[in-house]
Amino acid sequence: MPDFTMFDFKITDGVAIATFNRPDKMNTFTPVVMREMIELFDATDADDKVRAVIITGSGRAFCAGAELGIAGADTFNYNKRASGDEIISNGIRRDGGGRAVLRIFRSLKPVIAAVNGAAVGVGATMQLPMDFRLASTNAKFGFVFSRRGITPEACSSWFLPRLVGIPTALDWTYSGRVFDANEAKASGLVQSLHEPDALLPAALELAHKVTEKSAPVSVAIARQMMWRMMGAEHPMDAHKIDSRALQIRGQSSDVKEGIESFMQKRDPNFPNGVAGDFPAKLFADEPEFE
Hints:
Blueprint: E1 7-12, E2 15-20, H1 31-46, E3 52-56, E4 61-63, E5 88-89, E6 92-93, H2 96-105, E7 111-115, E8 118-120, H3 122-125, E9 132-136, E10 140-142, H4 156-164, H5 166-175, E11 178-180, H6 181-186, E12 192-194, H7 196-211, H8 216-229, H9 235-249, H10 253-263, H11 274-277
Parallel strand pairs: 2-3, 3-7, 4-8, 7-9, 8-10, 9-12
Antiparallel strand pairs: 1-2, 5-6, 10-11
């Protein structure tokens, strides 16, 4: 695994836990955080010991948005603060939050947000491509862009309405107001609320529940199918990818083990690993940034 400076990282019983580790800065988002998040998901995808990933924060915040104290009013003025490693295409500098979110979207492992505290701006939008969001009763959320004079970022105009519906997405992005964990749960943004000390154990329990008896490659394919089909125009798109996936997986050693273990009434021991056996060609038509 890489050496992370913005996260504390550990693997516990097959679950990777990455904890934002700058509580004195409210775990704010910087270009370094963006790069390390991309490296984190590159590393977890490549490690077959990892079955799921949990992202959480330390102190009072999950992530309190972009760090404003360095560049101040020029924080979002990319013409004045080029960092040298951000991709530029057709004169447009890519949004760093969007780069992190698109990498989470491509994750081959289930991703769980354990939202321990304040999650505003990119601290809220980075959660949207995660599969499950669990929140502390102390958590607060805010899509505060309109109150800073900017616009929604990190692909949130694609993800947020799909998760909570257009009226709620418009309310939150128009007003930029901060709302509590109860409203987040009532709107479907988070799946469950927990007392602070129970949050991480609940996230770990969920990670094990969704992975412990399933084939890692099957989970990886299902994750990509479900997320990508949210934007499909017709069920025929799903039928085509279903058919290709079944053609590929039907010949695998995992299927033999899955059927034999079922017939023998025992837990399966799937031999295929995501790092070597994920059929990337299923999703080879992913659009590129232009």
